[in-house]
């Protein structure tokens, strides 16, 4: 299992046996839930996404007081400047952590992940700015865990919880969820290889893919993850023929297209520009990609941070930067099992990232 609970502004799902069973229904039909329990989950994660508040005072993102008689209370607050404070209590026991993330003054969305492992006696609060390298982590000793009954309350019971209007979603897993770089291409995305287009989900270490220079470079790893299909994980369908796409592809909002050409050079003074897929939702180049509670993404790790040809348009591969120098982040990431000595160091791209207005303008002009 993994994800058992999800709540966003439009819907909520819960099943202690796992939300994956709901994904075969269109629209998703919630089934009778597996019996909930008042026993703390041995491992788990609580993940939230929130818009950065403009207020200059602390703001409660999520407050909860369990109605099950366990005495469980949770408070998750945002503080000015990108800070997050977490307090959990059960009876006379309290766990507390505070993280102050340097957002560079440009954060729009933050993701906070609280994970616990009762057997190891440790917990972790991580705050990150999705799509960037800004991640801050704090470790807790003697963490307080949620029960499945409290997970249900957290996403379903308005009498037990208080939510900020800035909160995008709450998701709860019975595993320790990774942080850091995330995959962002649907498994069916066609990627150009030495043998023509193949689905990215079928590629393995040692296969080769085409980069903008025309070279074929080896795949070091194919990174996969199933995530809640909401917030900055929500699937986006990029529509052909915008930006030269030969067919529609589905990506996460943080997946960036690498777009070049004479018009790009004229408008932005750069050989290429980067366009986050999420910037295209308010135009004709993209639509929402589905209604299931979960989605699975893949992404290719290459020797350098290069673009790959997907459905006749170049998109970025996974960027791991210099993550191997940050042991705390590496051990908490999807690459924790990858040999550190073999992990590449990726150079930072020099191409500008377009703002939403510029991305929509370019999409309209390229389609004309």
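Q: What amino acid sequence fits the structure above?
A:
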């Amino acid at each position: 299992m993994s994800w058992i609970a999800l709540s966003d502004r439009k819907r909520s799902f819960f099943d202690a046996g796992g939300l994956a069973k709901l994904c075969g229904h269109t629209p998703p039909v919630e089934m009778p839930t597996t019996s909930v329990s008042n026993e703390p989950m041995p491992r788990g994660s609580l993940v939230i996404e929130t818009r950065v508040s403009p207020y200059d005072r602390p703001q409660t993102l999520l407050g909860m007081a369990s109605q099950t008689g366990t005495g469980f209370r949770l408070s998750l607050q945002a503080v000015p400047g990108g800070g997050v404070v977490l307090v959990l209590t059960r009876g006379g026991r309290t766990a507390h952590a505070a993280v102050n993330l340097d957002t560079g003054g440009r954060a729009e969305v933050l993701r906070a992940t609280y994970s616990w492992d009762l057997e190891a006696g440790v917990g972790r609060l991580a705050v990150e700015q999705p799509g960037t390298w800004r991640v801050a982590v704090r470790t807790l000793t003697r963490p307080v865990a949620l029960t499945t009954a409290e997970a249900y309350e957290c996403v379903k019971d308005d009498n037990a919880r208080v939510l900020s209007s800035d909160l995008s979603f709450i998701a709860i897993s019975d595993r320790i969820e990774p942080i850091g770089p995330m995959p962002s291409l649907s498994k069916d995305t066609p990627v150009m290889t030495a043998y023509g287009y193949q689905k990215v989900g079928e590629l393995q270490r040692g296969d080769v893919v085409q980069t903008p220079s025309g070279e074929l470079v080896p795949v070091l790893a194919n990174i996969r993850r199933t995530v809640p299909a909401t917030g900055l994980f929500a699937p986006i369908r990029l529509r052909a023929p915008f930006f030269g796409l030969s067919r529609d592809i589905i990506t996460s909002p943080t997946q960036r297209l690498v777009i070049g050409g004479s018009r790009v050079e004229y408008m932005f003074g750069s050989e290429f520009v980067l366009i986050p897929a999420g910037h295209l939702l308010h135009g004709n180049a993209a639509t929402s990609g589905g209604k299931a509670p979960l989605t699975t993404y893949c992404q290719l790790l290459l020797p350098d941070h290069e673009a790959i040809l997907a459905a006749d348009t170049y998109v970025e591969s996974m960027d791991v930067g210099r993550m191997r120098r940050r042991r705390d982040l590496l051990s908490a990431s999807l690459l924790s099992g990858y040999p550190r000595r073999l992990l590449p160091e990726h150079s930072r791209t020099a191409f500008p990232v377009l703002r939403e207005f510029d991305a929509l303008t370019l999409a309209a002009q390229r389609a004309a």
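Q: And what stands out in the fold?
A: The chain has a mean pLDDT of 89.
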